[in-house]
Amino acid sequence: MFSKACEYGIKATIYIAVKSMHQERVSLKEIAEEVDSPVAFTAKILQSLARHGIIDSQKGPTGGFQIQESKIDAITLHQIVHAIDGDNIFNGCGLGLKQCDASKPCPVHDKFVGIRDNLKSMLHNTSLYELATGLDIGLTHLKR
Amino acid sequence: MFSKACEYGIKATIYIAVKSMHQERVSLKEIAEEVDSPVAFTAKILQSLARHGIIDSQKGPTGGFQIQESKIDAITLHQIVHAIDGDNIFNGCGLGLKQCDASKPCPVHDKFVGIRDNLKSMLHNTSLYELATGLDIGLTHLKR
DNA sequence: TCTATTTAAGATAAATTTGTCCGAAATAAG
DNA sequence: CTTATTTCGGACAAATTTATCTTAAATAGA
User: Fold this and answer.
1) Which PROSITE patterns match (chains A, B) (predicted)?
2) Tell me, what CATH number does B59's domain have?
3) Which of A107, A140, B136, B142 has the fewest Cβ atoms within 10 Å of its own Cβ atom?
4) What pLDDT is attached to residue A88?
5) What one-character-per-residue DSSP string does chain B give?
6) pLDDT tops 90 at residue A144
7) Which residues of A touch B7 (CB under 8 A)?
8) Nearest-CA distance from B132 to chain A in Å?
9) Burial bucket for residue A11 (CB in 10 Å: 0-12, 13-18, 19+)
10) Coil, helix or strand for A3?
């Protein structure tokens, strides 16, 4: 469904958000541990998220990653996925046809559009805030 | 969403079904042309579908691939996808956690389960017969 | 200023997926 | 029986994704 990069990116962002809600900045090392992801690969993904303005990074001792508290409830799952995987998941035909739309559909077009619209609206309607809150109060988990 | 192998496999199976409904056997070469897929790679996928009993193959001159007419309306999209990609798409956590269920969910568990159940039931409820018929009457297309 | 720490960035490597090639096996037809 | 055709199977190659390593840049604190 999602790429590994996306899985790690989502988990990391949620973890950073929880810490940011408690006014704490977190290091790459801590993130990778708490999120159970490969350190160096996670670094790449966080760099990308930082370039896309979703998270902030700070170099040096006491450095690390954080998210502006005011932005946490404005960031959606869609923005995170889009920053990492681009919009390939959201566009394009289910069977890989270059040209496929309602006027010249592939055999699964209608059914596929339904599923994907469903996925899209889920991603748009899910805020980082609700994901982070669920983790913070112990309702959800990121490891194993 | 689907792997390339799956895309090619679905398209090929639909094409074979249409021909089989007209009592025609088709060669690998014709399939790859009509479905716009790499010949040798398509061969591998068809071999797998044949081993899974979804399509029949025949060697030698006049050989090729076909599907028993009586099976066409019993075969589902789910069976095709499952034969090619296994059940990795249908099981497993959205964020890659080894252990993730309602009792110890990841942050996107509920939302993800919803989407995937949606996908699953679409695949289960879509028959090869309806896909092949749509193509046969010119309502849908497989190329470009 | 110097040092230790942390992220940034680029090169490199491993793993997986996608794709090709070629000889073997089957088989229809002359 | 021989030949031409077609799928089968395995080895091989290219492309993409996943993952690592190393050096540079920033920066906090002594």
Assistant:
1) HTH_RRF2_1, HTH_RRF2_2
2) 1.10.10.10
3) B136
4) 85
5) ---HHHHHHHHHHHHHHHHHHTT--B-HHHHHHHHT--HHHHHHHHHHHHHTTSSEEE-STT-EEE--HHHHTT-BHHHHHHHHHTTTTTSS-TT--SS-BTTB--TTHHHHHHHHHHHHHHHHH-BHHHHHHHHHTTSS----
6) no
7) 94-96
8) 8
9) buried
10) coil
Looking at the complex, report in whole angstroms how far the Cα of residue A139 sits from the nearest Cα belonging to chain B.
8
Number of structural domains found in chain B:
1
ipTM of the complex: 0.94
Specify if A74 maps to a domain: yes
Does some domain include residue A142? no
Q: In the block, which residue shows the tokens 């849908």? A: B140
Q: Do A108 and B126 touch (CB under 8 A)?
A: yes
The overall average pLDDT reported for chain B is 97
pLDDT tens-digit readout, A13-66: 999 999 999 999 999 999 999 999 999 999 999 999 999 999 999 999 999 999
Which protein residues have their Cβ less than 7 angstroms from some atom of strand C?
Answer: A 27-29, 40, 43-44, 46-47, 50-51, 57-65; B 3-5, 8, 37-41, 43-44, 58-63
Nucleotide D10's nearest residue (CA vs C1') is: B44
Predicted confidence band of residue B88 (pLDDT cuts 50, 70, 90): confident
- What confidence category does residue A86 fall into, taking pLDDT thresholds of 50, 70 and 90? very high
Q: Which residue is nearest to nucleotide D27 (CA to C1')?
A: A60
Residues 65-84 of B with CB under 8 A from A: 77
Give the whole-angstrom CA distance, residue B142 versus residue A97. 7
